[in-house]
Amino acid sequence: MRLVEITDDNRDEVCGLRVRPGQERFVASVAKSLEDAVTTPEGEPWYRAVYSGGEPVAFVMLSWNVPPGRPGILGPYFLWRLLVDGRHQGRGIGRAVLDEVVALVRADGGQELLTSHQPGDDGPGAFYRKYGFSPTGEIDHGEVVLRLGW
């Protein structure tokens, strides 16, 4: 597994990644995520395609080292999106991406990683909790905020 910059050469292929039917309410598409990155520069978006072998299998986007005090932005490090293509779910890719992201954030001096998710029994909350995230007690735009510290 490797994180790869999204360029004109791979953008269409990466935008073709899709979650399983019924999961769309829990994570925005890659195209929507890239649009959000452009329209929310104050979130300091950092995003990568996740490749296994020669094909994209996932997408990850963070707010990267956001200076304190920016209204509406959680951080400084916030896992904004993690989308594993439905054909590749259940293979440990999400965990591997989180391992890599946590290592990068730690190397950058970060002390914690935040994320959020839509409530729901069939959503990603259990995955994040199993990884080690814990609820902060906050709700952001209707989503449960989680924290992973080290």
What do these coordinates show?
The chain is α+β, with helices and mostly antiparallel strands and 150 residues long. The chain has a single domain, classed as Gcn5-related N-acetyltransferase (GNAT) (Aminopeptidase, 3-Layer(aba) Sandwich), CATH 3.40.630.30. The protein contains 4 helices and 7 strands. A 7-stranded mixed beta sheet has the order 1-2-3-4-5-7-6, sandwiched between helices. β6 and β7 form a beta hairpin. The protein is globular and about 40 Å long. 31% of the residues are buried. The model has no long low-confidence stretch (mean pLDDT 95).
Reconstruct the topology from this structure.
Blueprint: E1 2-4, H1 11-15, H2 30-39, E2 45-52, E3 55-63, E4 78-84, H3 93-107, E5 112-117, H4 125-131, E6 134-140, E7 143-149
Parallel strand pairs: 4-5
Antiparallel strand pairs: 1-2, 2-3, 3-4, 5-7, 6-7
Summarize this structure as a short list of keywords or feature phrases.
about 150 residues; alpha+beta; Aminopeptidase; seven-stranded mixed beta sheet; 4 helices; 7 strands; about 25% helix; about 30% strand; globular
What global shape is seen? Answer: globular
Percent of residues in beta strands: 25-35%
The major beta sheet can be summarized as: 7 strands, mixed
- Give the structural class: alpha+beta
Order of helices and strands: EHHEEEHEHEE
Number of helices: 4
Report the end-to-end length measured between terminal Cα atoms.
23 Å
Sheet with most strands: strand arrangement: 1-2-3-4-5-7-6
Domain unit count: 1
CATH class: Alpha Beta
Number of strands: 7
CATH architecture: 3-Layer(aba) Sandwich
Q: Give the fraction of residues assigned to helices.
A: 10-25%
Low-pLDDT windows of residues: none
Round the Cα radius of gyration to an integer and report it. Answer: 14 Å
The CATH superfamily is identified as Gcn5-related N-acetyltransferase (GNAT)
Do you know the CATH topology?
Aminopeptidase
Mean pLDDT: 95
